[in-house]
Amino acid sequence: MRQVCSALGEATRWQILGRVAGAELSASALAESVPVSRQAIAKHLAALDAAGLVSSKRVGRELRYSARPDVLSEASRHLGEIADAWAQRTPDAS
């Protein structure tokens, strides 16, 4: 969970994740629509992949990336549990 939160702590990664949520895209295709260099895209994809948020598959000579909704659902569930615990807390009487 920590790696997921760390990976999502960067705005460009959110943008990349949003793009690959709807389609399998190569790093080159992502570089055309995200305003950072191709090398930066590769680094962001590596962080998202290490956190398990994206998967890749080889199609011809390129790797295509797609989002892993199962990992996002698990992270959402954990965050929901924290939110529920926070909502049910008893205010300090001091």
Structure notes:
There is one protein chain. The protein has 94 residues and is α+β, with helices and mostly antiparallel strands. It contains 5 helices and 3 strands. Strands 1-3-2 form a 3-stranded antiparallel β-sheet. Helix 2 crosses helix 4 and helix 3 packs across helix 4. The N and C termini lie far apart (34 Å). The model has no long low-confidence stretch (mean pLDDT 90).
Task: Based on the model shown, name its key terms.
alpha+beta; three-stranded antiparallel sheet; Arc Repressor Mutant, subunit A; 94 residues; elongated
Along the chain, the helix and strand elements come as: HHEHHEEH
Biggest sheet strand order reads 1-3-2
Shape: elongated
What characterizes the major β-sheet? 3 strands, antiparallel
Number of strands: 3
Instruction: Tell me the number of structural domains.
Output: 1
Structural class: alpha+beta
Rounded to an integer in angstroms, the radius of gyration calculated over CA atoms is 17 Å
Number of helices: 5
Low-confidence stretches: none
Q: What's the level 1 CATH class?
A: Mainly Alpha
Annotated CATH homologous superfamily: Winged helix-like DNA-binding domain superfamily/Winged helix DNA-binding domain
Assess the beta-strand content as a share of residues: 5-15%
Note the gap between the termini: 34 Å
Q: Output the CATH topology.
A: Arc Repressor Mutant, subunit A
Q: Could you tell me the mean pLDDT?
A: 90
Share of helical residues: 55-70%
CATH architecture: Orthogonal Bundle
